[in-house]
Structures are given as structure tokens and as C-alpha cells.
Specification:
alpha/beta, 4-stranded parallel β-sheet, 10 helices, disordered C terminus
């Protein structure tokens, strides 16, 4: 059951498709003979599932999907143990290298945030030491002023100074022209990452997601949503003034 605004309770079967709200223990998507609520996409979206499965029949897509699943498996130890207990053994960096090798990739593209230039240089060096050719493009490529896309001076990070706009479309086009085998996003801003994905032609993976407060770990507020980040559930977002008034005690109080 889910409680709606106003106190009304919505039964699980009345929810539109939202797998996060599935309370079934033996799920149909995880177990043979499992079950699911009425809105379960595994039960309800048979036509969509059939349409999607046909895509996996394309040889290149099938091989990519197969290798991705193989890579998933080799990230755990003692897989033949009964009962099985998950013991992960590899970092995302190791997976990136292994998967790229498994796919036979030679040329890797990196689209990175200028604020993570140091980290991008380390990633590039490691990939090169494992035999890959790396084409890496900073988000500030072109040095185009933010005014070009209509940003006002008072909307800049450093008001009153020149600022280059983030340029994910050019990042994508440079990597497209380089004909990279596989692309890696490293810390692009929200929205800029979306534009990069829209314009990049090759398959892309995300190595790091930007989060300026948590050391680029956007899951941290979810892990601590019942303690240090409880405001995410309790406060309504609005203007900066509203947020300040909610979070900062007034001297008169």
C-alpha cells in the first residue's frame, strides 16, 4: 500500500508502472514461477517485451549484451557456492578495462568535466597503459562565452567574469569524427550529460556522475535520507530564499 497526499491509501494494484513500489517477494522478473502486481511490466507489457527482444537478435547488439552479462558475472567470487553469497571483487575501473578488452575495443573516447581534469588525466593514463588509444575532450572545448546561449552575467558561477560554456555537443561531435569504439562520460553536469548522449553516435558508459557536495557520489543523500539528508523528504524545494529560511535559524528565534 502507498499513502497519497491527503492521507488516502492506494493499493499496490492501483499504482501505475513503478517497479520501486513492488512489494512482491518472489518477483516474476527474478524467479521462474514468480508473481507480480497487476501493473507489473513483465506481465502487462508483453508486446513491448517482444518488440525489445527482437532488437537483441541483431548480431552486434546480441554480442554487446552477451558480453555485458558475462562481465556482470565475473565481478563475483565463488559463483558455484551453494547457498550463493554475493562477494563482489572488481571496481568500476577494472570493469571498464575488462569489458573494453572483452569487446575488442582499441579507441576509447572520454567526455569529461573541466573540473575533473586531474581525474580524467589519471583515467586516460591508466587506459593507455592497458593498450587503448584515448581521445579525451574537455567540456570547455571551444572557449565559447556563456552569453552565446543566453546566460546572463548574474547567472554565471563567477559574476562579472568571462566564463566558457560547457559544450557537450562539440564533445560528442569530436568523438564521432574520431570514430571511437566506445565512449566514457566522466562528471558532466546534469543536462550537459543529456545533450552529450543525444548527439554521440557510439555506445557510451558513465564512469562518474557529478555531485559537487559528495565527492561525485550522488547516492550519498539516498543512503542518509533518514538522517543527515532527511530534508530531501521533508522540505519543499523553491527559491533560494525559501531554502535559506528553512535551513538557517533566525537570530530572533
Amino acid at each position: 500500500m502507498e499513502r497519497e497526499k491527503g492521507g488516502a491509501v492506494k493499493e499496490m494494484d492501483e499504482i501505475n508502472c513503478n517497479c520501486t513500489k513492488c512489494a512482491v517477494i518472489e518477483k516474476i522478473c527474478r524467479l521462474e514461477g514468480g508473481k507480480g502486481p497487476r501493473w507489473c511490466p513483465t506481465k502487462k507489457e508483453e508486446e513491448t517485451l517482444s518488440e525489445a527482444l527482437k532488437e537483441y537478435d541483431a548480431p552486434d547488439i546480441k554480442e554487446f549484451a552477451r558480453n555485458a552479462s558475462v562481465q556482470e558475472g565475473v565481478c563475483y567470487a565463488f559463483r558455484d557456492a551453494k547457498p550463493f553469497v554475493m562477494i563482489p571483487t572488481k571496481t568500476g575501473l577494472e570493469e571498464l578495462i575488462e569489458f573494453s578488452q572483452r569487446m575488442g575495443y582499441k579507441k576509447l573516447g572520454i567526455a569529461f568535466c573541466g573540473g575533473l581534469t586531474h581525474e580524467a588525466s589519471i583515467l586516460s593514463e591508466i587506459l593507455e597503459k592497458h593498450g587503448f588509444e584515448v581521445i579525451a575532450v574537455s567540456c570547455k572545448v571551444g572557449g565559447i562565452p556563456k552569453e552565446r546561449i543566453g546566460v546572463r552575467d548574474d547567472e554565471k558561477i563567477r559574476i562579472g567574469e568571462f566564463e566558457s560554456m560547457c559544450n557537450p555537443i562539440t564533445q560528442a561531435k569530436i568523438l564521432n569524427h574520431a570514430k571511437t569504439d566506445f565512449n566514457i562520460m566522466l562528471g558532466l553536469c546534469i543536462g550537459h550529460d543529456s545533450l552529450f548522449l543525444r548527439y554521440i553516435e557510439g555506445l557510451t558508459t558513465v564512469f562518474a556522475v557529478k555531485d559537487r557536495l559528495t565527492g561525485h557520489n550522488p547516492m550519498a543523500p539516498l543512503y542518509t535520507s533518514r538522517s543527515y539528508y532527511q530534508r530531501m523528504m521533508k522540505l519543499e524545494f523553491g527559491s533560494p530564499e525559501e531554502m535559506k529560511s528553512r535551513l538557517v535559524s533566525k537570530a530572533s528565534e
